[in-house]
Write a structure and sequence with these properties.
265 residues; mainly beta; Immunoglobulin-like; 14-stranded mixed beta sheet; 2 helices; 14 strands; 8% helix
């Protein structure tokens, strides 16, 4: 075979990358390119953080006045999972955590120069509006949770509605799982959350017992912020946990990327 002809045939046979399709897959929340990818059910603990027990239960009022918030450290929401590079004027985020046997508690401070809620229907394109997303894996087991209750990815909207995908692959409100209050002054919002924890036995439409939290218990945890300053799709997705590799939009599918919290007194 002539060398030139052989080279042409070789080039034709090589696979090529469809840039547009890859970008679309990264930005889509409803269609996953990972559905057929094996996800290990063995989670390795990383970003291990101890969470202090609250003697006095925090009042969910969007303030920082509760005694426990004066005793615990801030942690950053500072890992870019999607979008272009941002600066401090556009976004800054941090959080604190506490627990009681009945619930987890979160104090979140977000600096965001534009709060944007384009979809009034809470079950429509909820990830493209500004929202806090809280990831909880009750037994820290990791693994796939995209359409299961092995873990939860609670999207908490500006109006307080809480959305995740149910086992029937449709979005559903989980407002009875997460109680929240947001207080915004200028470009700084203080969010306070009470999160009732459920494990993988949770069944929608059934009577479900929440997990009773206890000292030395481990849970999978991460938190993120979807930031949109007025675009059709979210512009940034910023999380609390470093995720290696190019594809970082994994938390809503794979609980292995969550960090690990340990409950302490």
């Amino acid at each position: 075979m002539k060398p030139l002809l052989f080279l042409c045939l070789l080039l034709i046979s090589l696979p090529f990358k469809k840039e547009g399709k890859d970008k679309e897959s990264q930005n889509s929340h409803s269609t996953s390119i990972y559905q057929d990818t094996h996800i290990s059910n063995q989670k390795e603990d990383h970003q291990i953080r101890e969470v202090k027990k609250a003697v006095i239960v925090p009042k969910i009022d969007g303030s920082m006045d509760d005694p426990i918030w004066k005793e615990v450290l801030w942690y950053g929401i500072d890992q870019k999972w999607l979008g272009e590079q941002y600066n401090f004027n556009d976004f800054f985020g941090r959080y604190k955590m506490a627990w009681t046997p009945e619930a987890l508690y979160l104090l979140v401070e977000i600096k965001d120069n534009v709060l944007y809620d384009q979809n009034k229907d809470p079950l429509k394109l909820w990830w493209d509006d500004d929202c806090v997303e809280i990831f909880i894996d009750a037994d820290n087991s990791g693994g796939n949770h995209q359409y299961t209750n092995n873990a939860f990815a609670y999207h908490v909207a500006l109006d307080g509605n809480v959305v995740d995908l149910a086992e029937d692959q449709k979005p559903i409100l989980y407002n009875n799982h997460v109680k929240t209050r947001r207080v915004t002054k200028n470009d700084v919002s203080v969010w306070e959350f009470e999160i009732i924890v459920y494990d993988d036995t949770y069944k929608e439409g059934h009577v479900n017992d929440p997990v009773v939290l206890a000292k030395d218990q481990k849970l999978g945890f991460a938190i993120s912020y979807n930031d949109n300053d007025g675009s059709k799709e979210r512009e940034n997705f910023i999380g609390s946990v470093f995720i290696p590799g190019e594809e970082k939009n994994l938390g809503w599918i794979n609980a292995n990327v969550f960090g690990t919290i340990i409950l302490k007194e």
